[in-house]
Amino acid sequence: MLADDYYRLAHHDVTGRPRLHPTAVGLGCAAALLAELLGARRVVVEDDAVSVIDRKPPSDSLMHFVLDQLVAEEGRRHNVRTWLAFLSKDATVQIAQRLLRGGHVRMAAVRKLGRQTGVLYVPVDMNVAALPWALLSQRLRRHEPMDYEELALAGLVLATGLDSFVLDGAPAASFDFLKHQVGTLWPPMRSLLFYAHAAIGEAVLAHRT
Amino acid sequence: MQASSTRATSSNVTNTLARSRLGTASVVFFVMAAAAPLTVTAGGATSGFAITGSKGIPVAYLAVAVILALFAVGYVAMSRHLVNAGSFYSYVSQGLGKPAGVAAAFVAVLGYNAMQVGLYGGFGAVLSGWLDERFGIQIAWWLCALIGWAVVAVLGVLRVDLNGRVLAVMLLAEIAVAVLFAVVMVAHPAEGGVRFTALSPSFLVAAGIGAALVTAVTGFVGFEATTVFSEETRDPKRTVARATYIAVAVTGVLYGLSAWALTVATGPDNIVAAAQEHSTELIFTLVQPHLGQFFVDLGHMLFVTSLFAALLSFHHTVGRYLFSLGREQVLPSILGRTSRRTGAPKAGSITQSALAFVVIVGYALAGADPIVHLFFWITVTGGLGVLILMTLTSTAVIGFFAGNRRGESLWHTFAAPLIAVTALGYVLYLTVEQFDVLLGVDANSPLRWAFPAAFAAAALLGLAWAAGLKTWRPDVYAAIGRGANATPTANPFAPAPSLNEAARP
Predict the structure, then answer these.
(1) B-chain residues within 8 Å CB-CB of A161?
(2) Which of A82, A104, A137, B147 holds its CA 20 to 30 A away from the CA of B73?
(3) CB contact, 8 Å: A149 with chain B?
């Protein structure tokens, strides 16, 4: 699933530590969840509005949960920015929990000075965890055509600033290829990614000093 | 489900988001901690007395607080209608046109850089003087400044959060010490008792007041950052406005009274001579006999930490400006890069640090005086830049609301900004006219024109740059002033306009 792949890309394949700063991971995961619903034609994004077009319960429990939230507040017409900000609060943990249920990660305690300060989701199999990165990186470096799922993942990577990691050391042509390919995504997905990108930029500006 | 059938209080989304939002007090703390009150009361005010030779510094602080409160009326009103409301140049570009916006951006980058780099002079000199006096450790001022520089450079790239609580405690301690010192000085007046001469409004029309006014403006720089947090506040309509007025009022009263207390303790007629003799040590020298060593040491320590907080905060301001401009591709897009791990505007931060390093080393090699030539000259030049920006921004507010008031009152959109433009413009005129007094140089010295001319050059360069962008990069030109929301090539996901139009029937 798209969000699982994005989560794996955004976290270290052995240690499970995030590769991005917390705000970007949160917003990226939120965008990935919305992108899953978008790809399953459950919702559609037009300009900055999110609307539900199919409210049949999805088979995946997390998608079901997110769609429920969207349906419950349909009448309020929150825009994409609001949804991203709201979903980003829990999106990372929710996706990690889904991976945990699927047996892809295990929980490990983070300790500082002997006290537990948090939880890390450590991949069970580093080969599986590194797969999305390896595939995407090869596709982009070889300028190969990509299917929708890969393209959507590439879009999330570019929007959240992971491109410098995926294309580490690649020639400028690969970055241009990435930008060009992402530009061919369908408008609702591009719209979603646009707001995710802008929200991460705003977070840089509104940093509290 | 119908919108009307949902109760206003039951939105899970709204409630969840509201929980993490900032209240008025938090915004005031963030902004005032950056403005670092002790830097101004112990450093800015005493240097101002010494170099400008004006006794009107206290009343200048109060007058500037009033002007800035008027400025804030229109500024805050416009911030409600903007994206990228955190930076002056987006106001100017949306109120006065994009060429003016780019010119304002260049002035801002120069002005805030000057503020930040100038503070290194104060930081280095104060720290080295204190270490020498208390511990007998002799370190050159520039070495102290470079140590501070190294820490700021690292914190800038790593973007380590200075803990909000630590900042709040430091800020409260600074205010407490400043108030305590002021009370002690007023309680032990010089011969002739407590006199209010220095608060006399007659100074506002006396010769040389321009220099005092821009010194005062310099002390307030930083309060304009309240709008940066507008999207994160609980009630953007009111929280930002309230926080801005509170910040201006508290700093204004604190600075004015503290500077006045200095004149009481020395006697209004001796303040200039005393300030010239003791420089930034004046306030500590005056309270030492009455308070004892502990409070003087505490004051010194807080003076150094407040200078450091101000350094870090202006460093972030410059980084933010460069990031915005890089993201819009007005400046090279590499400046829009952020660090993956920390989200710090890495390239902008490194650029600023490099510039500061060159200036500190240059001053050290030239053997210039850190307090007079670096701290005072360069920070008031930064203050002049911010004064220019505020004048432009006030004009932009009038331009922005002309024709369409967008539901704001006439006072917010026209009357207050107009008074602010007039007042700020007059202060600006006085400042430039009396820049020789401000620098303490001869009236015929070319230096008096060099500093203001730097801003004119930056503005002209900005106008030329905007013209170039319009010709060669129309997509970039179209998005000037939108910061992280920039739509052109900067954001590959920008909806292609042709597609959108094609989709419409």
Answers:
(1) 338, 340
(2) A82
(3) no
